[in-house]
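Why do we care about 3D structure at all? Because function follows from shape, and shape follows, mostly, from sequence. That is the central idea of this module. The next example makes it concrete: a single protein chain, its amino acid sequence, and then its structure expressed as tokens.
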Amino acid sequence: MAASDLALTRRRFYIQLSAMMTHLFSPLRIGRIEITNRAVMSPLSSVLARNRLPTEAHAAFYARRAAGGVGMIVTEGLRVHSTNCAATAIGTFEPACVDGLARIAARVHEHRVPIIAQLLHGGRQTHLHSPQLLWAPSAIPCLYSGYTPHEMSLAEVEQMRDHFVLGALRAEEAGFDGVELHAAQGHLVQQFLSPLSNHRNDRYGGDFDRRLAFACEVLDAIRERCGPTLIVGVRLASTEFVPEGLDVAASATIAAALEARAQIDYVALSQANFMSIAGHIPDRREPPLPYIEHARQIRGALQRVPVIATGRIRTPDEADAVIADGATDAVGLGRALLSDPDWVAKARAGNADRIRRCIYCNVCWQTITNGQVITCVQNPQAGRELELGNIVRSATAKRVVVVGGGPAGLAAANAAAQRGHAVVLFERAPLLGGQLRWAARIPGDAETMNVIDYLAGEVRRLGVQLRTGEEATARTVLAMAPDSVIIATGSGPHRALFPHANGVSVLAATEAIDQLAGNDAPRWPRVIVLDRDLYFATGALAEWLASRGAEVHLVSYHQMIGHDLPAANLTCMLGRLDALGVTTYPAHDLIHIDKLRAVLRHAYSNREKDLGAIDAVVVSGLHRADDALALALRATRPALDLRVVGDALAPRSIKDAVHEGERAGIVD
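And the structure:
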């Protein structure tokens, strides 16, 4: 079948699929309003506030998702009390917040999308290393955060209740359609609900009804002060995933009690707390829809209010299916809308194949917990909508040559083509993808190819000339008389820095993947994985080897294995490594290896450890830029508009590759 015929067939399929998604695109009544479809933007912390006040960047961030066609938006958690509000979070206790919130609501309402303000206090939980005094129902530390909180007095509990109400009043004044009480993910209201964190013996703790009292008082007071027209929802954790914490049955009972006792309009679901943080934002190693049965059980306990389920709902057809079979009334999309704000609009138009699908790396979550503005590996505009906006066509079309068909080169070609330039892309390999093709072959990591699948589809659609299987040289590039050249030739193993083999197999990660994925995969009884990557590949390789029966020793010079991983992914990875029997050596280096022994040295004490005979060493990381073509072009044509991006500039992450590639491709 010709490429054009295949594209037409795919197009017809997705148009038919869109027509079949009648449940996702059916209206749903929530309180006084009817939303036009059942895709709801879930709360995403943005770190866009300044001095605890909303900014124009907030308005642009939410307006972009509204423009993409969602049925309803729930904002990031607005902090209701000064005991839990960094300067980069919105504080509803600040009177000046109303003007900024009003601008957010107005921008979202331009697209006829309702917006709900989430009201939050973190209680004993924090990502900060030196936080202000933490308030909580009981003086019990969260093991993840590590700090013992102040146990709130009765007067302080009442003060906190009043601050939640104040937050609702200010959201209503700003024109929001409703509020959502955050009683999930181990934050303050959930801390009152859970016997894990509430050891009080007064009217706010001691049995189920008293643990429920604070949430009921807050919800009742909001309804009394704001009236019947304001939507009032509650976000609950379906389970905490820790002993003595809430499980699904307990959460279903809480949901039913709140429906009966408080005038709530919907229940949104999350899961976990900071002590089980991996369950809060499941990564790509988790199955799709991992918590949908929790939603089904909780929905079954309710009589009238709709349920919004979340958690790795990847595609429109998955969303439609779980609504169709009664597991949930609506789906909450967070990371999916960060990656592609037009997720809903594309699905509705029959363009689901053009959705930029999330790879569930959780870099977005990592940035916000580090106190940085939210970002996305695949979407450079995420969090920077006000600054960057959409790519627009250039007034003058130019000739652009891109060398390299990995994420950086494809992002550059995509941006340049969107600008209206004539783009040619060279890739020496027969297939596009660069190093991501190797990463995606590791079991559990196939979704990393979403990056390439999206970009490759877009450059083909935009008419980029793809010259795969062709090595570009300075002569061939210059013969095309380009106005701009973008070098995205990636990186390769820096073998001079590898351990001296002395008769032992020492392999780069890509070489190990080739062998493990081959028909005659080697059997290495005892393997060292040397962590010079500090990121996803190291742990993934160790897992793969251990699952094949190898005795794996994972060695890192840093104090922590997977030093640069998001904490949620790291905790998952460490759990899997332990279950597989992988021995980890943080703060160690491999100083000698031969056929008889491998010797490690502790990074700080210099104590040495002999591991005995090792069959292979797999080096994860230690790359160097492949910049030979860039150097040749600079030497030959110094005045050439030459842009070097991604690993060709210096070996780094997928995010760096995509973001730099797109910036380079926006040729004037």
